Amino acid sequence: MQITLYRRSYPVAGSPVALSFTPDPTAQRHTFTAEGRVYEAERSEVQVVVPDGSKLDLVKRLLDWAGTDGIVKSNAKEVYDLAESRRSGFRMVK
């Protein structure tokens, strides 16, 4: 099964990165200030393959999936990290 994660970052080293299962509203503005300069957020979509049978709960902002010890609930950052490390049926779509 494939899902989309929404990534928000800034073009500055050490700046925060946010991941979500839902996109930010287009009218919403996010900025980051470093060394007296203000940077606008850069948004991108990340396609991720998750284990079959996974369920996305947008109200709780969690992905439920079957792990070796039962049902696991992961937030968007955890799903991204699992896909980057190619663990438990997760992977990035190139």
C-alpha Rg (nearest Å): 15 Å
Instruction: Give me the strand/helix succession.
Output: EEEEEEEEHE
What is the 3D form?
A: elongated
Query: Which stretches are low in confidence, meaning pLDDT under 50 for 5 or more residues running?
Result: none
The domain tally reads: 1
Largest sheet: 4 strands, antiparallel
- How much beta, percentage-wise? over 45%
Structure annotation, total helices? 1
Please tally the β strands and state the result: 9
Secondary-structure-based class equals mainly beta
Alpha-carbon distance between the two ends:
15 Å
Averaging pLDDT over every residue, what do you get?
95
Roughly how much helix do the residues carry, as a percent range? 10-25%
Strand order of the largest sheet: 2-1-5-9
Quick take:
The protein contains one helix and nine strands; from the N terminus they run E-E-E-E-E-E-E-E-H-E. With 94 residues, it is mainly beta.
Give structural notes.
This protein is mainly β. It has one domain (2-92). The protein has one helix and nine strands; from the N terminus they run E-E-E-E-E-E-E-E-H-E. The protein has one helix at 76-85, and strands at 2-9, 18-20, 31-34, 37-40, 42-49, 55-57, 62-67, 70-74, 91-92. The strands form three sheets. The protein has a four-stranded antiparallel beta sheet with strand order 2-1-5-9, covered by helices on one side. The protein has a three-stranded antiparallel beta sheet with strand order 6-7-8. The chain has a two-stranded antiparallel ribbon with strand order 3-4. Strand 3 and strand 4 (37-40) form a beta hairpin. The model has no long low-confidence stretch (mean pLDDT 95).
